[in-house]
Amino acid sequence: MPGTLKPSEAPNLLGVQKARKRALFAILFLIACTLPFVRSVWDWQGPVQEWIENVGFSLVLLAIIGRCWASLYIGGRKVRELVTHGPFSIVRNPLYVFSFVGAIGMGAGSGSLTIATLFFVLSFVVFRQVVAREEAALRAIFGQDYIEYCRRVPRFLPKISLWNAPERLEIEPARVIRTLFDAAPFVLAMPLFELLGELQLRSILPVFLHLP
């Protein structure tokens, strides 16, 4: 049973997307203001630092691929139809889940597990509110169908046994490309951490806090 709103009458969902972007910029601004003065306790080019950075890069790559994969199924369809197949068959918010993975990877790019954890906590706290508002809008659009979907499929923790996918999939390349560009902060974080590390080693930037 559909909800009380038609897809074309979903200003709340559009507002949620704007809120998501504002939240992302707020997180990035906070990071930009604090990270230049924080570094890990490990040797800059030591094995522990390198291992954490490599794990971070792998997670960022996974996040980018995962977000593009999810966008193949949802791109342009969010308010037109209830998408419940592909990655959306195992978790309701795969784009956000992969964003959490990317946030951990960004933090790990600093070589600090503490910063990686902080990045995840920040992104989860902020985006959890955005997700709640987005789900409320989708519930208004799709009604009982969406309620049943929420009962069956977890919000953030994928349940692989629920997987199902259509034989054919209509793809909007522009949506995938947009998702790829949205992942730019994940990619740019890695060279940024390298630059900050060099500036700290040269004592151009003061270090006020060392974290494991």
Explain what you see.
The chain is mostly helical. It has one domain (19-211). It has seven helices and two strands. The chain has helices spanning 11-34, 47-74, 94-108, 113-142, 144-152, 173-182, 184-201; strands at 38-40, 209-211. The chain has a two-stranded parallel ribbon. Helix 2 runs antiparallel to helix 3, helix 3 runs antiparallel to helix 4 (113-142) and helix 4 packs antiparallel against helix 5 (144-152). The protein is elongated and about 60 Å long. It is found in: Endomembrane system. Keywords: Membrane, Transmembrane, Transmembrane helix. It comes from Mesorhizobium robiniae. It is a multi-pass membrane protein.
Which features characterize this protein?
212 residues, mainly alpha, two-stranded parallel sheet
Protein topology:
Blueprint: H1 11-34, E1 38-40, H2 47-74, H3 94-108, H4 113-142, H5 144-152, H6 173-182, H7 184-201, E2 209-211
Helix pairs in contact: 1-4, 2-3, 2-6, 3-4, 3-7, 4-5
User: Based on CA inertia axes, which overall geometry fits?
Assistant: elongated
Kindly provide the radius of gyration, computed on alpha-carbon positions and rounded to a whole number of angstroms.
19 Å
- State the total count of DSSP E strands: 2
In this structure, how is the largest beta sheet organized? 2 strands, parallel
Number of contiguous helices = 7
N-to-C SSE series? HEHHHHHHE
Counted up, domains total 1
Q: What is the gist of this entry?
A:
The chain is mostly helical and 212 residues long. It has helices spanning 11-34, 47-74, 94-108, 113-142, 144-152, 173-182, 184-201, and strands at residues 38-40, 209-211. It has one domain.
